[in-house]
Structure formats: C-alpha cells, structure tokens
Amino acid sequence: MTDQTIFLCKKSDLAPTGAFGVTITTDQGNLDIVVVSMDHDPSSPQSKTPSKTGYKAYINSCPHLSMPMETFEHEFLDRENPALIVCSTHGARFRSNDGLCLSGPCDGASLTSIPLTYTEDAIFMEKPHKTR
Ligand code: FES
C-alpha cells in the first residue's frame, strides 16, 4: 500500500475462523501477529464477507508466559463467544476489541496492539515510527 505499511493478509483470509495468524519480518526480527475480525459469527453466512465493523491485530504472545495463543492454525477465537481471543496454553480470555485479559492467569494484563490500515480487500500493519 505504502512504504509505511506492511501487508498482513487479505480480509477473506479471516472468513474461516474470524482470525488469521501471520509472521512478518521486520528490522528487529520476526513478529508473530494475530488479526481478528470484530464481528465474526460462525453461525452466520455474513461471517464469510468482510467485516463491517473492522479488524484488530495484536502480537501473538500471551502476557502470561509469552506463548503463541492459537489452538490450531488461525484458531484464536472462543467458539462460544467469538468476541474473545483464547490462549490455548492455560485458557486466558482476551477481549478482541482492546486485548484486555478478562479471565485467566494474566487477568487484567493486555495483548500488545498493532495499528492497522485497510484497503477494500486487504489489511496492513502501520510501521512503527522510528525514534532517535
Ligand atoms: S501462556 Fe497464555 S494463559 Fe498461560
């Protein structure tokens, strides 16, 4: 999109599970990221279309023990409540719209948010601004 952004995924990549795990390479090394849809509803065919309410992204590292969170590839969301991200290691649950842990061993901690920008079809990470 611009040299200030990094491609993460197509919006359609989130359709199967409401989330998408991706690894990008930065100047500081590899970064594992999870992108989540804000309105995934596995019971609705509308879930197969791009989100109307947007997307969020976080570093895929649980604040409890810095473990990756998914159960299986791209499976991050609570099946009972897809507004929650679940860490598969010890079951912490994070609010997907702000990354706050609502229950589990890191209750009250937060996932690290990644700023996003979109086109009609794709989701990009905004590169961090360099500081002196
Ligand atoms: S590593 Fe995520 S809850 Fe323990």
Structure characterization notes:
The strands form three sheets. A three-stranded antiparallel β-sheet has the order 1-9-8, with no helix packed on it. The two termini are 26 Å apart. The protein is mainly β and 132 residues long. The chain has strands at 5-10, 19-26, 29-37, 55-59, 84-86, 93-95, 101-103, 116-118, 122-126. It contains no helices and nine strands. The mean pLDDT is 90. The relative contact order is 0.23. Residues 62, 64-65, 67, 87, 89-90, 92, 104-105 line the site of FE2/S2 (inorganic) cluster.
What characterizes the major β-sheet? 3 strands, antiparallel
- Enumerate the spans where pLDDT stays under 50 for 5 or more consecutive residues: none
Helical/strand content category = mainly beta
Helix content: under 10%
Shape: globular
Total count of helical runs of at least 4 residues: 0
Please identify which CATH superfamily we are dealing with.
Answer: Rieske [2Fe-2S] iron-sulphur domain
CATH class: Mainly Beta
Write a brief caption for the model.
It contains no helices and nine strands. By secondary structure, the chain is an all-beta fold. It has one domain: Rieske Iron-sulfur Protein (3-layer Sandwich), CATH 2.102.10.
Any key phrases for this structure?
Rieske Iron-sulfur Protein, 132 residues, mainly beta, 3-stranded antiparallel β-sheet, globular, 9 strands, binds FE2/S2 (inorganic) cluster, 0% helix
